[in-house]
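Dear Dr. H.,

I hope your travels went smoothly. While you were away I took the liberty of generating a structure for the chain from your last submission, since the lab meeting agenda had it listed for discussion. I wanted you to have the full record in hand beforehand rather than looking at slides cold. The sequence, exactly as received, is reproduced here:
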Amino acid sequence: ALYRPVLSLCVRYRYVLILGTLLLSLVTVPLFMSLGSEYMPPLDEEAIFFMPITVPGISIEAAKKLVQTQDKIFKSFPEVERVFGKVGRAETPTDPAPLSMIETVIMFKPRSAWRPGMTKERLEKEMEEKLRMAGVQNAFTMPIKARIDMLTTGIRTPIGIKVFGDDLVTIDDLVQKIEKIIRDVPGTRSVYGERELGGFFIDFVPDRAAIARYGLTLAEVMDVVEASIGGIDVTTAIEGRERYKINVRYPRELRQDIEQLKRVLVAIPQQKGHMRRELHQANGGVGGRVEQVPLGMLGTIEAVMGPPMIKNEGGSLSGWIYVDTNLSDIGGYVTDAKAAIAQHLKLPPRYHLKWTGQYEYLERVRDLMQWIIPLTLLIIIFLLFLMFNGLAQVLIVMLTVPFAVLGAIWTLALARYNTSVAVWVGVISLLGIAAELGAMMVMY
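The corresponding predicted structure, in token form, is as follows:
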């Protein structure tokens, strides 16, 4: 009773329907372009993983005090049940975390015990405000999510920037400039560029002429530096199943500063002939021979700043920048950040940037979907042609697919969802369902 009147109205106002469909399609295009994008929608793990980073070269005591202070602040929130903060690493190469990187797991009480109207987003914002400290850049994530991100990309924040080049000094300068630019991009919660030259070292620069004058070789001098200052493992102590290396070197009072290091003695082998006479004269004519010479007379000892860690990727040196954002639209944020960098910074020749983290996966998915969705449509058309054995029926069925896509886009916009891998998998399934429903209508 309803089918024929509806069909009659559709036939009578077919041009109005066609025009309305065209207008709806035109309006949907800018709506689709305005949708945000992310790799995967976040799954609430009912916990927060707090991963701040501070300046390199921080002492163990200062790092320990910083962790204790942060734990007390976290525990002051009534929604928090327990807090566990960790700094440093075990004696294992699987987790090369420096002292400047802190990892804190915050477990929550049941939602019924939270303050009225409190949400996780509001709670993170309050924590961010109370945990602002000089020299510390905060980053909030979740435990499982953070581990997966670090295992796959090495970046512990949602977005990371890698600066590639040939010189660490230039890379460090670019990292600091990009850090200042990103800080002003809307949506940036925190940004930290690793200081590639932030480590403190004591360098011994040998004087080859002085070493040769005393009848020594460079290897002999460097062996003394390695053994007496750095220490050398001479044996292993065994206590049951435990093994302890025994390291021999000068006591701390003889190597605690540069002036003490200059007094480290280097043994000189006994010389003959004219070399003995030269050494005798160099010693001021006192004694028959010179048997030891201070290290300060064989080179220069100075305190310098250098790279605490050298990262190499793809045959180039690299510097990393960690970016934490309070926006779920990762793709839109990176687009704004790229525009800001292009406007304020010009990279030198042979230097380039790579955006990583979740954005790296997002780009891969975009490239993948560019041929997966058209391939899905071609498979649907092929199967429909085999079933109907006619092109007209296939075209009638495929007319339903654009309407399904339009409905999906408007649903995403009204629900304020971003496009993601999960969304595109749903869209692909929707194409099949729409084609299946159209085929049933044509058949019956």
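Two observations you may find useful: Confidence is low (pLDDT under 50) at residues 286-290. The CA atoms of residues 235 and 292 lie 27 Å apart.

With kind regards,
E. W.
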